[in-house]
Amino acid sequence: MCGIVGYIGHREAYPVIVKGLKRLEYRGYDSAGIALINHGMKLYKKKGKVADLEESIVGKDVQGHIGIGHTRWATHGEPSDRNAHPHLSNDGSLSMIHNGIIENYALIKQDLIKKGYTFSSDTDTEVLLNFIQDIKQNNNSTLEEALRVALKRIVGAYCILLIDQNDPDTIIAARKGSPLVIGIGKGEHFLASDATPIIEYTKEVVYVNDYEIAIVKADEIILKNLGNEKQTPFITKLDMELATIEKGGYDHFMLKEIYEQPDTIFDCLRGRLLTHSGEIRMAGIDNNLETLCNAQRIVIVACGTSWHAGLIAEYIFEELCRIPVEVEYASEFRYRNPVINEGDVIIAISQSGETADTLVALESAKEKGAFIFGVVNAVGSSIARISHAGAYTHAGPEIGVASTKAFTGQLAVLTMMALKIAQAKGTITHERYSLLMKELEAIPEKVKEILADTSHIKAIAEKYKDAPDALFLGRGFNFPVALEGALKLKEISYIHAEGYPAAEMKHGPIALVTEELPVVFVATKDSYYEKIVSNVQEIKARKGMVIAVATNGDTVIPGMANDTMFVPDADELVAPLLSTIPLQLLSYYVGVAKGYNVDMPRNLAKSVTVE
Ligand code: F6R
């Protein structure tokens, strides 16, 4: 949430920062701003997208070799020009951008107001900035010292970049709980919330850790902890190509990412799922096989779409490994003082690896002695680093706000993980193990088959786009797929949608069924098939409109449904990897048909770094 970019070096800072902000816009897009130092501080801010900011700056002085920029997802104060970052200190010398939340800002603000400070925004950021200015003046200290004192007194999460017009050769950065990467160029440095604004200039980066301050000049980075002790910057090489963060001819990132799935799932399986030798090689599991096999309980902690992947994993792990599994919303798990016993394994699932609710939940579980296994997409992210072990999903950068390819990557990793543990524990027969390996291996080609012609899904989307509500139903492995389908439709098309286990309908929700209500059934051929056929009949008997996801060759479900989206046949354990694809496309096409910005749905942001 909120994207941060900074530049210092021999180039003009403005174009680097604007381009970087556009790359980070998925993190927040309600307002944007830039501060540059060139004979004094220049500040430009605008409500709306980065393009609106750019337009508002045309003809203005944007020269300078040092600058910071921000794209915002509002927390304190409505989206507006005045609440946009960067903010300016009362004395006009300092400018700051911030991603995160300062929880005790109200008390600090009261104190500052008593001292005569004024505020031109409603943000916690402006409070922190003036707090730093106040400490600097009162203690007659350097900016770095003042920042260190301030950070020790605030409660909350932050990634901040700070510049001082009296020191145009330095950007000071700090982080706790919100990500920060520094790209190392020749006589220049790039700072950003993730590597996407940096990738076209350099592949050498330093990930700043929590409680570290970075003093960044054109030709050096000094890293320190809050105790003023120097830390050694650990340089990492980025494994990312520019093409992966560009639209590549697609209308939207979401569509591109849906279409990338045959490749991303393949990449996830590659080198791990070795069907010829019957092996699954995953270092994070191999090195901790005993801990995982002896788990008394697995607790899966995640949010949103990743939580849905966790629900599917619950079915898979219980079925194959016979280990009890609980799936928790990270935000609830964190705050209800959960019981964590020795022998519990926590699996954290996260695309961004930065989701604050998940991260904080893991921190407290780790303190209580739990073993943490991370299933993460973003390499080097906070959740990846806090985990004892893990497996990356290797889906590549996901830019569209709605998660698609990361979800199927998570399912692929979790399925391999369950297979591997089940084999080691002896809870799966050799035949079933071999069959499921082959089933998994065949998934990328089957996804390709679904994507080969999507015109009928587009037509279904056009037909139902004006429905005010929709229900998504499934059973067994496909129940969480129904939840995911409903979430996708809600966030992309703003249609109110609910997911339910199909059998639950008769316990209440069936009262909603009318001739106008589209009911989406995920009804592929599995062990629940006969039951779901009855559930479809119950809806048809009440004149509901049924849209079905059915297996190729099935005639029963399509015979009852008003419209059908077909997927290839697959074992029920891996079927969610297929049945989810038409639902992603359905939401995409409904959103597009309604004229919405599917990559940046209203009120949302990717990488939710506030609790
Ligand atoms: C929905 C979506 C969100 C995320 C959730 C968790 O399409 O993208 O629900 O799944 O915010 O994010 P990660 O996986 O980054 O922890």
Architecture overview:
- With 611 residues, the chain is an alpha/beta fold.
- Helix content is 37%, strand content 24%.
- Helix 17 (455-464) packs across helix 21 (576-593).
- The longest helix is centred in the last third of the chain and has 21 residues, at 405-425.
- It binds fructose -6-phosphate.
- Fructose -6-phosphate binds at residues 303-306, 350-352, 355, 358, 402-403, 487, 491, 607-608.
Instruction: Give the helix tally.
Output: 21
In oligomeric terms, what are we looking at?
A: single chain
Q: What share of the residues does DSSP label as strand, in percent? A: 15-25%
Low-confidence stretches: none
Q: Give the helix proportion (percent range).
A: 25-40%
The general outline is globular
Q: Which CATH top level class of the largest domain fits?
A: Alpha Beta
List the bound ligands.
fructose -6-phosphate
State the CATH superfamily name of the largest domain. Answer: Aminohydrolase, N-terminal nucleophile (Ntn) domain
Which topology of the largest domain does CATH recognise?
Answer: Glutamine Phosphoribosylpyrophosphate, subunit 1, domain 1
Rg (CA only): 25 Å
